[in-house]
Amino acid sequence: MPAPTVVDPAQETPVRTLLSWSSGKDSAWSLHVLRQDPAVAVVGLLTTINEAADRVAMHAVRNALLDRQADTLGLPVVKVRIPSPCSNAKYEAAMAAAIGGARDRGVTAVAFGDLFLVDIRRYREEALMPTGMTPLFPIWGMDTTALAADMVGSGLRAVITCVDPRQLDPSFAGRTYDARLLRDLPAGVDPCGENGEFHTFAFDGPMFDAPIPVAAGKMVERDGFVFADVTCPDVRSASIPAPHERPNESRR
User: If phi over 0 gives left and psi between -120 and 50 gives alpha, with beta otherwise, what is residue 60?
Assistant: First the structure.
């Protein structure tokens, strides 16, 4: 299995880094880890947006809630708008344009919150190779049971926004990712959802300046997935999209 990618701590200036941001807990924890590394400077978030529904791809989180996250994280968001459905070619062209623009602004690395799916890591590494960007994997290889406990113990909280009912009961959609949920997960379900069992929206934790007030609203079943529409008092409604995206997109 590949080792985590590390940055040389002896370099004179921190590596300007974009963080691939799904809006979920693994992305949030990756930011927490990276911010403790003096060799890395996270200067922005990179997020794919389903342009038809104006929501974060796969997680179905409202664009305005993504903006709320970014505000309380103190980071700008590079939004990569993709159609739905989206072909591999269109996805890769949109990402290449976003990466190229970031490189022109002095960004030299992109970080990802992947944990153990080797094929996804290989895809990311191969995609970045022609760009000259360094791929970083700050939480790669961590034991997911211990990691989930550390996340919850730190005060990180998230809402389950999407469930794959083939792997997890739909009743988990809309629940808070906390110690009780971890106890309730059935055997065989990864506690971080790394196999796509569920996806989340992070709303509180040590990486945020303040918690985001949210609630799980309407439940929708679409294209074989169950979505919980996360709402916030001053965020307008938008339809929940079908989960059309690249399978290699960050999902937690």
Answer: left
